[in-house]
Structure prediction request, 620 residues.
Amino acid sequence: MKLGFLFISIRDLKSKKLRTVITIVGIAGIITSYLVMMAAANTMHDLVDASFSAYEYRLFVLKRGKEDPMVGQLPEWYVDKIREKVNPDYIDGVSGFLWWMVDNSTKDEDDAEFQTIRGLQVESYKSVIEKYEMIAGEELSDAQEDRNYCMIGINIAEKFGKTVGDKITLQNHAFTIKGIFSTSTMIDSEIWLTMRDAQNLVGKLHKVSIIIVKVKEQDYVDEIRKQIEDNLRGVAVFEADEYMEANAEALDSFRGVIFAISMIALFAAVLGMMNTMTMTLRERRHDIAVMKAVGVSNKSVALIYSVEALLLGFLGGIVGVILGFLMLNVFGVSNIELAGYLISVDLTYQLAFESVIISTILGLIGGFYPIAKISRQRALDILQKFG
Amino acid sequence: MKSISNDLNVIEADDIWKVYKRGKTDVKALRGVNFRVREGEIVAIMGPSGCGKTTLLNIIGGLDTPTKGNIRVNEIELSNLGESKLTKFRRENIGFVFQFYNLLPNLTALENVQLPLIAQGIPKKERFEKAKDFLQAVGLSDRLYHKPGELSGGEQQRVAIARAIAVQPSIVLADEPTGDLDTKTGEEIMGLLRKINEMGQTIIIVTHDDMIAATADRIIKLRDGKIIENSSS
Ligand SMILES: Nc1ncnc2c1ncn2[C@@H]1O[C@H](COP(=O)(O)OP(=O)(O)OP(=O)(O)O)[C@@H](O)[C@H]1O
Ligand SMILES: [Mg+2]
Prediction:
């Protein structure tokens, strides 16, 4: 195996410019779609993970029979009732939320379309929401003073280019942005108002849609759950895990589909490479026979063309990553809207690196069979058959 | 004055048979060929088309193996060597010159000549200098960076000769090296081969041309896969 031959690989690629470019672009297209799909899948996975851990030890209290927090309506005083009835030593906090989604897609004057809005009990919400950080401005803290103010998640701020002091219009009602928060969970796509504003906006006075209870330790969860169920009528109590399991499962099967599609795409890339290398080697077989006749070993021949296949895969990977980066960051398809949540897809260095490696390996795999086949043939047989 | 060794045989062929299967019939390309070639000889192989000249040359050069019989080249028994050993043998012992040059079209003259040098693992600078020297020796010092497509037939054959002798093999095998060239160019090529021979390399030429054969030390005539004449010219 002699590295001195490798200039032939490059010369070969250069002498068939069109084919080289077509092959690279073809692989690049597949790598781009692979990259974007995997980035989306990874982002979802991270979100689900983060959301799970953010809701550890939480109990969700919902209206029985209407276990969707977007719909279920509980009396606001249930919050105080829970505080009163459960063992205070076992819990860190209780807070009610009014939680719904606005469909403003048809109204031009509204900034938010399909946005999730949450009404907060400002004095208690922080005791049940964890991993929560202010990026700018201040949080809502006073039920009276903070009327007509709102807090928005980082994703909303980025999507609409809003900052502290700007106004955001919800159902013809203007709210001034007081602060921007970040949780690294799906909550980052929400708009938060004081409870009173939220109830007015949606016409549900003295109602909340969900009550979240944060329990101190896993050991107390069952006990607290029982205490709530015993003292409140018509409620269903879920552990956060349990409740989110369904969401997670849906996302997981979505990821499974993405993964399967990616694999098919990668397989197509291998076939494409195989085709290109078969064509290339068919054209080069006379050269190959001559090289062997003058004493170039099978290994060296295999090396020359493997490097050619490897370079095609590698360049396809690089171009694919660049295209993926442009798609996500310049043409801005990085924000996928899913059920009212904005999922921002990030191209990580690791994923970019992995994609280039995968593409390079695909090139090698695609080239393997045709290369192995031709490099094993006798020089004379090729010369005699094809002159 | 060149010297032909009297006792050192570089090629010893004993009862060589080559049978090709073509469908159900056997084609006997060589039928019991025996001969010796001494170091430093120029031997011409002649005979009508299809008599087995190329087959014989390929067997001597380790591109093919006999169906039966023994072939020793530089004291190496080739008849039962495997592919990779044969490749190594060719690399170290044989220079080929083909009728249709067989240069790599994408490589320059200089790169084509370097191919066998790379195969031998000769360092970059050294092989570059060597290739340049040999191209100069065949009169192509002003064509170093030309590709085969940009060279005439005679020039291409000179590149092929430079490639064949670049690793200074002990034996050069040429299969109708002038067959595709006009008489004058053919004579120039022959002049080159003789010059190489004077430096001590053994040369075997397959040719149809009596004039060329006449300049050889010996002529081996084949017919129907057998030697019918083996004489000094
Ligand atoms: N691979 C092969 N398969 C079958 N028959 C073959 C093969 N190679 C050569 N032959 C046959 O063997 C015989 C000798 O062929 P060879 O090429 O050695 O002839 P040659 O003397 O070189 O002829 P020419 O002067 O036309 O080049 C011919 O009959 C040819 O058809
Ligand atoms: Mg012939």
User: Anything to note?
Assistant: Chain A has a mean pLDDT of 86.
